[in-house]
Amino acid sequence: MSYVVYAWAASITYGLGSIIGKLATKYHIRNPWLYNFVWAFLTLVFIVPFALINHVGFPQDWTTIIWLGLASAVSSITFTLAFYAVDLSILSPLSNMRAPIAALFGVLLFHESLSLIQWGLIGLLFFAGLFIHVDERMSLKTFWTKATLLAFVWILTSVWFNAMIKTASAHNGYWEVSLWSSLITVLFLIPTIPLFIKDMKKTPVQNYSGIALCTMLYTAGLLFSIRALAINVSISMAIISVPLTLILTMLLSFIAPKLLEKHSFKIYLIRLTAATIMFAAALGLSR
Length: 287
What we know:
With 287 residues, this protein is mainly alpha-helical. It has 13 helices and no strands. The protein has helices spanning 3-27, 32-53, 62-85, 88-94, 98-110, 116-132, 146-171, 174-189, 197-202, 209-229, 234-240, 244-255, 265-286. The chain is globular.
């Protein structure tokens, strides 16, 4: 199948997983460090049987796998902290910021050149990003918060993570990348255990059902995204960043306003418009 199909599959599964995961953070698991470790561990558990069926071997280049595992651990921590702190209708569209940040890294680190149109698209992305944070107060000051800073740190680490997927995939097989990087991610997260061990002992087993389902969807999304990103990074990331989560969150807020988050139709319309502009600009930037 084309990498575009894999990218769309990743976008859909990530969108559904985000909704279920957000519900789990609100009603089942309040400690983000516990959520993050369980998420990483279950991802490994779900990948193992598929990897074994496909005769997974040892990596040819351990260095890139270890770096990918580290990038995955750091990115998952920053994502989880932002996931707990920021509305889904804000966090999901912000993923489009990965495209301009990756482009700016290319300019700063590899002396790549950008056209005037590309610079304009980058400016448009950052400008539209300001309106993603608008709430009922209708103030752009909501952009400058600790939660927003967490979201941007996650974006920076996810750019690194996506680049390492591309690098590791150039030297290793698909299932070697998927399995061993997931294992190394868990190993890098072991030092965080003291941050959640007490809450883990007090959390009923049934409270893990939401994160288990979320992780199944995220694992599928990860496998789809690794397949897509191994072939093409820019267009794949643009597709994966389609604001499906924002649309699903909007629909859920109208159907069950007390379940997840609730804002006025006007606020969601502003956020959706900004997200659409960001997506279009990110897609244009990736070409």
